[in-house]
């Protein structure tokens, strides 16, 4: 139970700190050109997700073999 409370309080404080940092950004003028964030970023995120799933399955298989 102590670990759960510690992790929960750590997650809460991290969320609180990051929300303050996000709100501290300055505003932009009206003449700023908007740039879409798409294309390679979505491909990179998909590849990272697939790599994470593969590593997770490999670790689970290694644990099964050791047991």
Low-confidence stretches: none
Number of strands: 0
**Residue fraction in strands:** under 5%
Distance between the termini: 27 Å
Mean pLDDT: 82
Number of helices in the DSSP assignment: 2
One letter per element, helices H and strands E, the order comes to HH
Helical percent range? over 70%
Largest sheet: none
Cα-based radius of gyration, to the nearest Å: 20 Å
Large-scale geometry? flat
Secondary-structure content class = mainly alpha
Features:
67 residues; mainly alpha; flat
Structure description:
With 67 residues, the protein is mainly alpha-helical. The protein is flat, with a radius of gyration of 20 Å. The mean pLDDT is 82. The chain is built from two helices and no strands.
Short description:
This protein has 67 residues and is mostly helical. The chain has helices at residues 2-23, 40-66.
Layout of secondary structure:
Elements: H1 2-23, H2 40-66
């Amino acid at each position: 139970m102590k670990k759960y409370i510690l992790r929960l309080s750590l997650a809460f404080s991290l969320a609180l700190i990051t929300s303050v940092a996000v709100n501290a950004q300055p505003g932009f003028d009206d003449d700023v050109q908007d740039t879409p964030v798409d294309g390679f970023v979505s491909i990179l995120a998909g590849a990272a997700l697939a790599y994470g799933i593969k590593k997770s399955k490999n670790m689970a298989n290694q644990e099964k073999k050791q047991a």
